Amino acid sequence: MIQALRGMKDILPPESSLWGKLQGLASSVFSSFGYQLVITPIVEKTELFVRSVGEGTDVVSKEMYVFTDRGGESICLRPEGTASIMRAYLNDPEAKSRSLKAWYWGPMFRYERPQKGRYRQFHQFGVEAIGSNSPYIDAELIYMLDVFYKKLGINDVRVELNSIGCELCRPSYKDELVKYLKSNEDKLCNDCKNRINTNPLRVLDCKVENCSKIINGAPIIQDFLCAECNSHNDVVLAALNSCGVKYSKNPLLVRGLDYYSRTVFEFISDKLGGRQNALGGGGRYDDLSAQIGGQKIPSVGYAGGVERTVLFMPELDVKAVTVYVAALDQESLNSLAPIIYECKKLCIDKEVLFIDDDFKARDIKKHLSRADKLGARFALIVGTNELNSSSLVIKDLVEKKESKIDVKYNEVEFTAKLIVGRMLEEKNS
Ligand code: HAM
Hints:
By secondary structure, the chain is of the alpha+beta class. The chain folds into two domains: 15-169 and 225-311, Bira Bifunctional Protein, Domain 2 (BirA Bifunctional Protein, domain 2), CATH 3.30.930; 321-428, Anticodon-binding domain (Rossmann fold, 3-Layer(aba) Sandwich), CATH 3.40.50.800. Helix content is 39%, strand content 21%. It has helices at 15-32, 46-52, 58-63, 82-91, 135-151, 170-183, 190-198, 209-216, 227-243, 288-291, 306-312, 330-346, 364-373, 384-388, 412-428, and strands spanning 36-37, 43-45, 65-68, 74-77, 100-109, 121-130, 158-163, 247-249, 261-268, 278-284, 299-305, 321-327, 352-355, 378-382, 391-396, 401-406. An eight-stranded mixed sheet has the order 1-5-6-11-10-9-7-8, with helices on both faces. Strands 13-12-14-15-16 form a five-stranded mixed sheet, with helices on both faces. Helix 12 (330-346) links the parallel strand 12 and strand 13. Helix 1 (15-32) packs antiparallel against helix 5 and helix 5 (135-151) runs parallel beside helix 9 (227-243). The protein is elongated and about 90 Å long. Bound molecules: histidyl-adenosine monophosphate.
């Protein structure tokens, strides 16, 4: 049997209904805060991510799915969404004259070692506010995400926050950090030894025990922030305090992608454990647009991992009334099938669900045993007797009661309305 590729998984029911809920809530919550849906291609020029996410990052140097297309161009499966959204914004002559608040959803690809909560094809929902340097946008974004997680039923997440300065103040911090790390190089893991030259801030993120000891004594960025970065950070924190979002400051929080400046943050759940404890992360990226060839456009955003988020969502409280359709012979099935189609149309958004109708005639015993396995509440039963007497049996499988209703098998709409009316009455009783 052909299997899915390593690190790529199918999303099947019942898990897929959680995905549906997440997507629906993302749309309603983010729209309410002014974010509009943007869809970009899954394949991009490799250069887009090399210039934005950064050559020295794990994502670009080790994890991208890169191909040469038939025209000889280097293209890749997108490893993240932010650079694509910014490219789309810069490419659109209409959009460029205004700011854009975008939300998106879709598959991303990273060639990582698969484990729980980490896949090679994974999905992100994301939000990007392009065109404002106001710290109130950063705070609103964090507030909105806090609301979003709570609406999903996830309460045990916390926000960790840091400022990593800007292109003016970060270089002097980097110099100090590199000096400190070099003086402790012999105690660092091999990865961190390499990072001193390629991406020294990433050393702060290392979870190897010996490295942690060194990191705890490292200089911290707060002592190097310029006046503008400091005041930006102060406003973000004050706004979060005013709107009641609980956060903790983490001076060691740096992100795995190079484009960030000032605010960086992650929504964390300790239940995830290990290095995969972030449900999502984001921050300000005021220089990204210039890195990919546009003018400087201050922006801030966030992306959450759908697979990880779904792990924490409580099971759905399904209130729908479930109805099993039992035709006892072919002739009854012929009459019943179009009525059931009509019933389903009438039940859109009504929480009455006709389940597992494989449209096969069976004897009553087999039907009832299937209905039981599927957890149906009611069975609609039609056989020769019912056809001949223009009636239909409704069996309540929980209360173990049955009743008959009079129907007209040659009047599809009329009969469907009767059935649905009765099911809605049962639902509301
Ligand atoms: P990121 O931290 O690389 O940021 O990814 C965001 C989230 O995507 C992670 O916290 C995690 O939940 C999920 N994720 C990442 N890799 C995997 C994987 N291999 N398997 C499962 N889930 C994964 C970004 O991608 C930025 N674009 C976020 C952003 C938006 N910054 C500003 N705007």
